[in-house]
Design a protein that fits this description.
heterodimer, A: alpha/beta, four-stranded antiparallel beta sheet, 7 helices, globular, B: 256 residues, mainly alpha, MetI-like fold, 2 domains, 10 helices
Chain lengths: 259, 256
Amino acid sequence: MAPHPKLSISGLNKSFRDGAVKVLSDINLEVADNEFVSLVGASGCGKSTLLATIAGLQESDSGDVLIDGAPISGPGIDRGVVFQSYTLLPWLTAQQNVEFALREARYDPKEITDIARRHLDLVKLSRFADSFPGQLSGGMKQRVAIARALSYRPKILLMDEPFGALDALTRGQMQELLMQIWQEHRLTVIFVTHDVSEAVYLSDRIFVMGLNPGRIKETIPVTFARPRANGEGHDPELLELQARVLRSIREEIVGDEVH
Amino acid sequence: MSAEFSTATYVAIAVCAFLLLLAAWTIVSAIGLVQPIFLPSPYAVVAKLIKLARDGTLGNDVAISIYRISIGFLIASVMALGTAILIGAYRFWEAAIEPILDFVRYMPVVAFVPLSILWSGTSDVQKFLIIWIGTYFQQTLMFKDNIKRVPADFVGFGRTLGMSDLRVLMRIVVPSALPQIWDTLRISLGWAWTWVTLAELVAANSGLGYRITVAQRYLQTDMAIGYILVLGVLGLATDQIMRFLGRQFFKYEKRT
């Protein structure tokens, strides 16, 4: 086994407007190889900022972000990102969108077509390989985005509320698809969401973030056996865990209003 | 608020409005309400245009004006796109260039006409210059806006692939903005017709604008009106061609 955790963050601080607004305060966390963790918290707790910092899209004021023990320097293809907004390039087909990423990631041009096709297959979109994003539904677009982010084999998949803009039914299907991919292919995933049941269904561990400044308030392990049932969760233990996460988030909001 | 219309109804209303206008013009000139020297009948105008088309005058004038607008507009557009990419991507260049553009933009183009003649006489260069002054500054600011509107996550996506800023700009940002950039081109091409006409009105010995001043000099009102109509038709036609081409180029934008 590798001596290092897949991702390790220590003493991470970040503020906006030259220190006037502190968004992340002393973040310390570790994510193991093949672990699925979620970041949850009220709006403004900095969970998306934390994810963007791990992605290298934003810089921290202080602290370390290590992948396999090595500090990151800016964004890179060792981390794949799926954004909440649709980021497929509209002038390229689904297939070409994946190929675009592979080409930029310097894959052998001879292999690109094949790798792209296999990843569209992975998200069950082979039939829509030649469709343009404008012809795809929101769920399909995010599936292509997942295929695209996975195609170049990042060490960590970073997902920023990827299903936030989807309707409930599609969201459920996407969660199940993501679970299936995760279980079959073993990935390290950091998943930002404000949907507690989504976090409980998907995660090995849930980091609850507190407000003002954003910090890791509590780490809640989710120990239910997989595969888990999505949606119709009547299991009292499961409901209790969801309630516990929700309570933890709510305490922050109420606490914040009291100040 | 407006009621739902079928396309056919819309076209029918538009055609009726045009016919109504034409009928009003016909009646006014037929009953002699206005003397022909001020407002000739539509038929006199059309007859004059046909005559000018037959002897080649109209064709020559249209050709020379299209040549001038093409060159002037092309130069302005290429320069404006280059400037827009520069100021859209780099804060330094934005600070250095944009305030100047904003300032010049508010100077009336017509005020540059005497200077343009002083600098470049009545040659074609003077026409290009007026078209350039009239479009470059506006285009640059509009192109920049088109580029700035590309969602930040598109840039983020490119950066996560390890692409350099310049590569993100040229391979993601500018291509993303192309449909909007095309629309800006279409709109500014409409203005360019005004500027080429202006330049030809004041200092030319050929072109559509020049012919209108000749018409005024010899009291050939039918020719002046005919040429104004031709300019309207040309403007409309270029707009439709640009729309058509835009739909061809950016087919992917169409939703199913």
